[in-house]
Amino acid sequence: MTDRSVRPAHIEAAGAWLSGHGLADVRPTPLLATRLAARRRTRLAASVLLAAFLIAVALVYTVTRAAGSTVGDGSGAAYRQWSLLVLTAVVVGLVLALSLLDWWVRRVDRQAGATLPRRAAHPVRLGWRTLLGLPRAAFAVATYAGAILLAIGALTVRDSTARYAALVLLIGLFGVAVGMAVQLRHVLTHPVVADDEASLTTDVIMRVEDARDVATPTVVWSLPVVSVFETAHGWWIAAWLVFIALSAITLALITARTAQSGTVARHAMTAPVN
Q1: In degrees, to the nearest 5, what angle opens at C-alpha 226 toward C-alphas 232 and 41?
Q2: Which of 20, 75, 110, 204 has its CA 20 to 30 A from that of 236?
Q3: Among the residues of the chain, which ranges form H helices?
Q4: In angstroms, rounded to a whole number, what is the distance separating the alpha carbons of residues 159 and 224?
């Protein structure tokens, strides 16, 4: 990788990124600029992909509702079964697309690492406790568990339309959860791309930010709006709004009380080797 292969704007963005993380004395390199640019594109693509997923869930739900209202009960049940199969296919597509995005990031990192004359390794193993942190990990698990419990609660009502909407929500939650697991696995397992202490520090910062971004349950909060809200009972809607409010407050408190990614990286670099 040569300097000519990297756009000046990417080098400038890398310098701003370093300054924003307390590393203003570190020179932005083409390697760092390339890795950061790949992650910016991937995050944008993932955001578009998740938005498209929400739209697809809404389309499956609304089209099936409209079709079911114009046919008899037996045909309506058949429409719902087929729509759930379609939704399952959409979920599989989501997971595959997220996997492809992760593969592309790994490919960029691998190509960047191949240009290094030597490779460095982190002094300690960077597990999920370091990169994500126990509070954020517990928050992510609790958020998905709470959303699943609320969806199961909607399944207990006698209204078949409400139960169908709850099934749509459950399948959507499953897809988002699997997608998050795939992305976190990539963050935790992909090889280090560094050749000195400064690049090792930036590598940790990127991993921490990747993990935190993946674990933010924005799509989980949005899924009921495109499915369950139209048919849910008043108590369920109230419970979900309280759930979202408490989740948002909890995330804000965790963010305020958790060390910034640069601090986490510097602490990891100075941690004693076991």
Answers
A1: 150
A2: 75
A3: 8-20, 30-69, 73-113, 128-131, 134-155, 160-189, 197-215, 218-222, 234-257, 261-270
A4: 17
**Cβ atoms 227, 87 nearer than 8 A:** no
Q: CA-CA distance, 143 to 245, in Å (whole number)?
A: 12
pLDDT digits (tens, 9 = 90+) for 72-94: 555 556 777 888 898 899 999 99
| Cα 92 to Cα 86: distance, rounded to the nearest angstrom | 10
- 3-state DSSP call for residue 84? helix
What's the maximum distance between 2 C-alpha atoms anywhere in the chain? 71
pTM of the model: 0.84
Q: Which two tokens stand for residue 253?
A: 């408190």
196 — alpha (psi -120 to 50), left (phi > 0) or beta? beta
Q: Which two tokens stand for residue 1?
A: 């990788």
Length of the chain equals 274
- Which of 183, 185, 164 lies closest to 230, judged by CA? 164
The predicted pLDDT at position 76 comes to: 56
213 Cβ neighbours under 8 A, 6+ residues apart: 43
* Structure tokens belonging to residue 264: 């986490």
Helix (H, G, I), strand (E, B) or coil at 18: helix
Q: Extract the tokens encoding 101.
A: 């995005």
